[in-house]
Write a structure and sequence with these properties.
Elements lengths: L1 H33 L17 E2 L2 E6 L4 H7 L3 E9 L4 E9 L11 H4 L6 E10 L9 E10 L2 E11 L2 E3 L2 H14 L5 E9 L5 H19 L9
Antiparallel strand pairs: 1-2, 2-3, 3-4, 4-9, 5-6, 6-7, 7-8, 7-9
Length: about 230
């Protein structure tokens, strides 16, 4: 019986070694392949992004410190505060990277937003009635964040190489896939935030989605698509 176990171990261990060696080889190949991409410049500077989106007009713009920009490694960005005719505010942030993970990288709102008394109350995926390069009913991520009795609605997505991606997990997968088969890792992170001024969360969600639909379409003029 003991001899039988020894025989089985001799048969199993070489198999495991081969599998591990194959995994190491694949990992090495992926790392080498995805790190040799060509950085892609933005099509049109974000500084030229429209100051009027629907019935919202630019109210203010914000500049991050040199230290924050160095930490993010972002190649182009805007952080605009828009206000509607009714006095409703919406904040838009767009950050563009020529080669994500090589020259800079994203910071997920799920990690950045909690703090200062704010916490994530709810997360979900929502659809926008907008097409992007032939894709219908695009989904983006939505969070409801809360501090005491105050609420904010947050929408965000990754607008990368002709795709709208609502998941950090899938963004990583497409990042590797496109690096291998397109030689690209350019990408952008888009975030929209709006306060819930009157406690009507549903109303705020609707107006933020309408704004996001218009902003997404405008971003097509600035961000590289599937075809350069």
């Amino acid at each position: 019986m003991v001899g039988g176990h020894a025989l089985m171990l001799k048969m199993i261990y070489p198999g495991r070694v081969i599998i591990l060696l194959c995994l190491f080889g694949v990992t090495w190949y992926l790392l080498q392949s995805t790190s040799s991409v060509t950085p892609v410049d933005i099509k049109k500077p974000l500084s030229e992004f429209p100051h009027q989106i629907g019935n919202y007009r630019l109210n203010d713009s914000f500049q991050s410190s040199a230290g924050v920009l160095e930490l993010l490694g972002v190649d182009d960005y805007i952080q605009y505060d828009y206000v509607s005719d009714k006095g409703d505010h919406i904040n838009l942030y767009v950050g563009y990277y020529r080669a994500v993970g090589i020259e800079g990288g994203y910071h997920s709102p799920k990690n950045c937003i909690p703090g200062g008394g704010w916490g994530i109350n709810e997360t979900q995926k929502v659809q926008l009635a907008q097409d992007l390069e032939g894709n219908n009913h695009l989904k983006v991520a939505q969070m409801l964040i809360r501090k005491g009795s105050e609420y904010q609605v947050v929408l965000y997505w990754f607008q990368n190489r002709g795709r709208i991606i609502a998941s950090e997990y899938w963004e990583k997968i497409y990042q590797v896939w496109d690096a291998l088969f397109m030689g690209r890792r350019d990408g952008s992170f888009v975030r929209i935030i709006a306060y819930v001024p009157d406690g009507d969360i549903e109303k705020t969600e609707k107006r933020v989605r309408v704004f996001a639909t218009s902003a997404l379409k405008e971003l097509e003029n600035h961000l590289p698509g599937a075809v350069l």
